Amino acid sequence: MITADPRVVDAGGVELAYVEAGDADPPIVLVHGFTGAKEDYGDHLEWLGREQRAIAFDNRGHGQSARTDSYSLDLVRGDIAAFADALGLGRFVLVGHSMGGFVAQQYALAAPERLIGLVLMGTGPGAPRIDADFRRTADAARRLARDAGMEVLLQVQQNLVENDPAAAALASESDVRLRRERPGYVDFCDAKFVATDPVAYDELLGDILDQEDRTGALGGLDVETLVVVGDEDRTFRKAARRLADAIPGARFEEIAGAGHSPQFEAPAAWRDAVGSFLRELR
To answer: Residue 5's pLDDT band (boundaries 50, 70, 90)?
Structure first.
């Protein structure tokens, strides 16, 4: 995990907390997922920093970054641009996990000239394909977050986990095993969740579920791309394949024994896939 104290930068009027390791070019910017945090890359930041400057930041409304009045995927996409500019980055490699993958695609489509490479993990080209039960549960969770706060929402989800389609969608054998075997991992996940601004939870989840499909637009993307997904990621496995098929020349890596967070669940295989791709970009 990350042990260094975070820094804070003003990124277009939003204070974003970040950590970094290394100083060699090309820099790599790591964007976490919904209710995640910069620590989602903490096991690998020092490793990445041996070869290049690696920077992970908390999205607005997450972790130690500022809370704002409103949230959307487009605003988070804009934060990537403002963050890179605030740190004086020229061209860089962009990594996005889950929701971070959605906004990384948006950034790549808006400013492909800024990117040396793109890594998209556990994500797809548009809104997840969900059923009516999932949508009703997600909408109820959004209301509860607003009305009662994230700690109450967490308690409700924990009590209803077996009957919660939203939680079940991202569950996997590897995640269950990790929660059982890695000391402190459950508390780590819970702490990230409750640190999320309830307004961010509501508005970003709504945006995630209603976002437009980017398949057609991605067909014109000219950026070296790696798409990574765990073979147990039921929500995004097929979507990741569609994503890789949509982007010309994209490499696709399915990681065995991993669910939605392969950097935690199969770290050696994740490093092999990502490391090989990064070496080819240098």
So the answer is: confident
Is pLDDT of 6 > 70?
A: yes
User: In 26-163, which ranges are continuous DSSP H helix?
Assistant: 45-49, 73-86, 99-110, 132-148, 150-159
How far apart CA 213 and CA 136 sit, in angstroms, is 21
Give the per-residue pLDDT at 157.
86
Q: What is the pLDDT of residue 154?
A: 93
With CA atoms as reference, report the closest residue to 28 among 48, 46, 42: 48
Q: Which helix (H) or strand (E) holds 209?
A: helix 198-210
Domain boundaries, the chain: 7-127+212-281, 132-204
DSSP per position, 223-242: S-EEEEEETT-TTTHHHHHH
CA distance 232 to 255: 9
C-alpha distance from residue 217 to each of 105, 110, 125, 157 (Å)? 10, 11, 10, 36
Q: Is 43 helix (H, G, I), strand (E, B) or coil?
A: coil
Residue identified by tokens 């991993």 is 258
Give the CATH class of 7-127+212-281.
alpha beta
- Taking alpha carbons only, the member of 78, 19, 81, 76 closest to residue 49 is 19
Write out the two tokens for 124.
């797809």
Give the single-character DSSP code of 39.
G
